[in-house]
Amino acid sequence: MTAGSDGRVIRGAVLTYRDDPAVAEPDRAVRFYRNGAVAISGDGRIVWRGHAGRLPERFRALPSDDHGEALVLPGFIDAHVHFPQYRMLAAPGKDLLDWLNRFTFPEEQRYASPSHARAAAEVFLDRLVQHGTTAAVVFSTVHRSAAEVLFAAAERRGQAIVSGKTLMDRNAPAALCDDPESGARDSEALIARWHRRGRLRYAITVRFAITSTEAQLREAGALAARHPDCHVHSHLSESAGEIEFMRRLFPQAKDYTDVYDRFGLLGPRSLYAHGIHLSERECARLSESGTVVVHCPTSNTFLGSGLFDAAHVGRSDRPVRIGIATDVGGGTSYSMLYTLGEAYKVAILGGRTPGAHALFHLATRGNAMNLGLDDEIGSLEPGRWADIVVLDPTATPVLEARHALSESLEDTLFALAILGDDRAVRATYIAGRRVWGAAPGPE
Ligand code: GUN
Ligand code: ZN
To answer: At a CB cut-off of 8 Å and minimum separation 6, what does 394 contact?
Structure first.
């Protein structure tokens, strides 16, 4: 790493969360040091953070990146994104199923070629860091080799990803179908090779209910039972057409959530994208099981799937854990800033106006908790990996003009969520190494 064996100091306006600002007092939840510093050890972990004036003597001689008034935050965590869809954003489907059949399945078939997947993995991981995203829960394709090359590329970069081979054995082109036995066998082999290797984690990945037979869901549940330390990653209750199809395929299930529940696929390590049309019974069951529902606002509006109701899903007497994600390529931007802005718009359409601190918490520490990785990532506390994004609140003329009116840190963050995107990302660090952006210095 550029930090060298002795480490590095990153200076700027340091912001991190110790609690959820939506529920805790700001003094408890928010840590902000306008002239702040983060000291990083040679192995890429944070060893200190606070007011730059209080930087301990032993770190003062370390090489330093001084970002001045720019914000230094924990890197964004994208809780649901599709690597093989990296170049098919803005494909105009009439709804989810039309979009899958016309654009997505044909594109994903290319990933049978390991060389295609290898090149795509590099572009995809580049895209993440260009947008300030330092960790992600990533869908791959049905091909074992595509999952392999993605893990290998992330490992070379020292990047934390949770991923896995997709399981799908029906209602898709034959070239994208495995079968219950081969899917389970390939998943086992990938878990043995990649799970907990460095910063990588495995997710047992059922695409969604309608592309798996009961036999395959049973195998997936058995995998989850054998590997309780692995994540489970899938889609749930996204579009009307999908739900109708699911009902025909699983007439004995109480509802969509029950399809997964019957096979042991709910739990605190399970992440389900969307959850737009969940009933009261489903929310109660998701809450009880500790399952995470991941809100994907740009995808939900682009595919016309519906408006996620965070007040309903997160209701305080039976709260379901809620994450946030881009869902590229159903989602229309890799930017978690843009995604936060769209989440705000979806919320206000439902009568809620989440605060900017709550939004930024969700994209950092909140998602780290959703992944069960908050002791590793998501904040700038000592011991965590130095995965960091540096944001410039004056990055564009529009942001600059708006920033002149900013009245508080929260107001600055709000403007970044509504107006910001990759142009606001000045630098990205993974394990203390600058992987995006130029070295800061005199203009
Ligand atoms: N449901 C099943 N597959 C997909 C996918 O690729 N994208 C989205 N948004 N939903 C899905
Ligand atoms: Zn998705």
So the answer is: 400, 403
- The C-alpha angle 425, 431, 433, rounded to 5 degrees, equals 65
Q: What is the pLDDT of residues 12-47, one digit of tens each?
A: 999 999 999 999 998 899 999 999 999 999 999 999
CA torsion angle 184 185 187 191 (round to 10):
130
Whole-structure pTM value:
0.98
Pocket test for ligand 1, best of 80, 142, 235, 256 (most atoms within 8 A of CB): 235
Q: What count of Cα atoms within 13 Å lies in the side-chain half-sphere of residue 240?
A: 6
d(CA 399, CA 181): 53
Q: Is the CB of 390 under 6 A from ligand 1?
A: no
Averaged pLDDT score across all residues of the chain? 97
Closest CA to 325 of 75, 81, 17: 81
- Please name the residues in contact with 251: beta carbons below 8 A apart, sequence gap of 6 or more: none
Atom of ligand 1 nearest to the CA of 238: 10
State whether the beta carbon of 208 lies less than 6 angstroms from ligand 1: yes
Q: Sign of the CA dihedral 78, 84, 88, 93?
A: negative
Give the number of other CB atoms < 10 A from CB of residue 83. 29
Are residues 64 and 48 in contact, defined by beta-carbon separation less than 8 angstroms? Answer: no
Residue-wise DSSP of 310-376: HHHHT-TTSPPEEEE---TTTSS-S-HHHHHHHHHHHHHHTT----HHHHHHIIIIIHHHHTT-TTT
Cis peptide preceding 329, ω within 30 of 0: yes
Say which residues have a Cβ less than 8 Å from residue 19's Cβ, sequence separation at least 6: 28, 29
Give the integer Cα–Cα distance in Å for 236 and 260: 9
What's the CA-to-centroid distance between 6 and ligand 1, angstroms? 44
Nearest Cα neighbor of 17 from 293, 335, 377 is 377
Which residue type, as a one-letter code, is found at position 303? Answer: L
- The reply to whether ligand 1 has any atom less than 6 angstroms from the CB of 104 is yes
Q: Which DSSP category does 102 fall into?
A: I
**Regions of the chain where pLDDT drops below 70:** 1-5, 442-443
